[in-house]
Amino acid sequence: MSNSTLRELTDALILRDEKLRENENLLSVMFSMNPVAMILTSVSDGTIVKANKAFEELSGYTKEEMLGETTLHLYKNAEDRNRIIEIVKKDGGAKNVEIQFVRKDGRLIDGQISIKTIITDREECFLSTIMDITERNKAEVEIKRLASFPILNPNPIVEVTLDGVVTFCNPVAKQLFPDMCLGHKWFEKGQYLGLDIEIEHKSIIKEAHLNGRWYLQVFNFVKDAQVIRIYGIDITEQKANEDKLREKDEFYRTTREELVEAKQVAAEKEEVRIKLVETANALKQVAEEKEETRIKLVETAELLKQVADEKEEVRIKLVETAELLKQVAEEKEEARIKLVETAELLKQVAAEKLIKSEEKLVETSNALKQVAAEKEEVRLKLVETANALKQVADETMQFNKILLDALPCVAMLLHCETREIIAMNKTAEEAGCKIGQTCYGSWPKLDQPCSYCQAPEACTTYREKHAVVEVENVVWDIYWTPVSKDLLMHYAFDVTELKRAEKVLERLRETAGDTEVRKVLIIDDSKDYLNLLKTLLKEFIPECQVFTASNGEAGIEIAINEDPGVILLDIVMPGMDGFDVCKKLKENIKTRNIPVVFVTGHSDYKIQIQALNVGGEAFLSKSMSGQELVTQVRAMAKVKALHKVTLLDKELL
Questions:
Q1: Which helix (H) or strand (E) holds 128?
Q2: How much is the pTM?
């Protein structure tokens, strides 16, 4: 097939889709804006599925009050509803059945109802049209009432004998029939409109077209006077409205089936599009949450680095204090040496001069007391410094614990060299980690560091390290972030569900575009028709592989082994017929999603309903053209692709 032909087919399909959307919108407008009251009710449970504006005005109920409710409360007598249902079951529909309805405000309405069975959204429904004939019935009553003073009646009245001789004609009737006068022979006995009123002895109503206008004629036999009184009412405008309504109803019937099918296809496409958008939004949200977590981790690392800098400043102050203490100790040692030297000198002097040495001993004693006081002051300062350092360390550990518990992952503060846990969050504690143990010894309980551990490199280069690993079917996103020369933060995020969602989304994107027709299976007991269909498919779709089967059993086996994109199935076949074959295909998990198109010469809608009930997706007439065949096959290939997308979407959810 040439590229130009393919483009023409594509343009034709696009034009057909646009026309279906236009017809669908037109049907919705026709149903909603139709001046005749119309409702759709479910055949299965009798509930109201849809109602137009005219029906709301007729019944007095709103759509919200009617949808999902039955129509039983609308009938004055429940027997009328049962009688109509029996007529529909017997004749396939009902036409112009007169009954009485009850409005929401309790007022009674004389109605004329017509019902037709249709299929919409794969559901069998009753399409009911209801005309308000209350005014017409009142007019008939008014005609009878005005019979008591016919001369003043605004409608034409004629009185004739059974032989057809005019005995009375009011002014309005004389205007309508200028040649009519008393004694005028209007018709022969028993010949007017074929009515035998004398025998029936009851009123008869007929419509007549006179002088370009329509009249409703009521024939009454007056037994005492042995005459026939004929009353008429002008119904020309009503007839014109009825003709317009019939034309609209005919247009609605001719477009309804195509619009229903287009609406269903559009709904399925819209559902798939909405699900793909929801999936993309969910993945985008996950990525945003991950980015927020990463930002929080960076902020936490900066904060921990700041705490480490403050601890380094405290350590420097401690070193300076230790140097000061060392200097004091050296001075003390020098003082002690001097004291020893002084004691030796005093001992020597004491042997020579006891009186002079007494003064020097007093001076030395005072010097010793002063040195002891200075020593006590230094000891008190050292105690205060140690207590302050302990308080700072406790506050730092408490602050670290609060920060770590806020992280949505396993988080631990480790010593770089030994990988000993110094602090951790609640998530790490629940995972089995313990302060004082190594990270790999407490979680995941190993005798040596993990094979993917990058803690030494992070401490050596003083740069953050990152790795994504899978351990026992769990995917971890791991970071090693140094906060000082001796400390680092160890984070581990569980990203198993995120990775699985990314893989399924990729499969969804690949499957959504798989709409090419690669394999077609034809099941038909006619060898000539098999060859005809195979030739048409090869002509229009050369790359398509065509399989054929002359009976249902062989066709099912080929479908299981080859997984064709579309199955063309005949209904009438010896042995297993098309309905049984379709049931078997839909019951098998390997073939249930393969679209089945019934190819048959039957046009009975009951056969089509049965085909839909067993799982068929579409119909084709055996007198179809090659273009119709190819269009339907390509459409079914798209349906199968949609099935695949739906299954993968359920897997993702």
A1: strand 123-132
A2: 0.31
